[in-house]
Amino acid sequence: GAGVSQSPSNKVTEKGKDVELRCDPISGHTALYWYRQSLGQGLEFLIYFQGNSAPDKSGLPSDRFSAERTGGSVSTLTIQRTQQEDSAVYLCASSLETGSTEAFFGQGTRLTVV
Amino acid sequence: GENVEQHPSTLSVQEGDSAVIKCTYSDSASNYFPWYKQELGKGPQLIIDIRSNVGEKKDQRIAVTLNKTAKHFSLHITETQPEDSAVYFCAAPLYSGGGADGLTFGKGTHLIIQP
Predict the structure, then answer these.
(1) Cα A6 → chain centroid
(2) Do residue A91 and residue B44 have CB atoms under 8 angstroms apart?
(3) Mind listing the pLDDT tens digit for each residue in B21-68?
(4) Gyration radius (Cα) of chain A, Å
């Protein structure tokens, strides 16, 4: 595709429900990143994938968060038993490869837990 | 891991004047420093980056300078225009020496261009 695509763009969910956020990276990009941006804050690194593998999951805030990537392309970030503090914009980025190369961001998914 | 501090949090300048945003980092082995611009409702967009083997890089009205000794880097925007109004983030690699990947970001600077 032309850029990184995330869906949905907005999601309102009730506390305790599970949500799944989707990221479609730029075609051919092997590296994929998830970040979280809380209101008025900077970006918090969550996890990255090199191909389908996620070497470091220590950035995930709790065991309610998980992510997977299949076929080296689409990734999903799943939040189980959502809490109000999970409300934020979840941003996905991709780059041609890992390392110090340009990361292209999607427009984000705004998650609101009520 | 790396720690990045950014200031000011808000910067208001007159249209046509220059704007400077500064960041410091903690890991002397960090070697890549991008700057992102984020407009309302959009994802961050890379506007310029610099690697540790150079001290300055320019692209039209924007420039970035890097002082490795002091471990700080700055974004300079000259002849500011209304479309420069946005939130700007500096970043550095989360970890040096390979292995894990990703960026750590400053908390952002809200740049306001006054007409």
Answers:
(1) 9
(2) yes
(3) 999 999 988 888 999 999 998 999 999 999 888 899 999 999 999 999
(4) 13
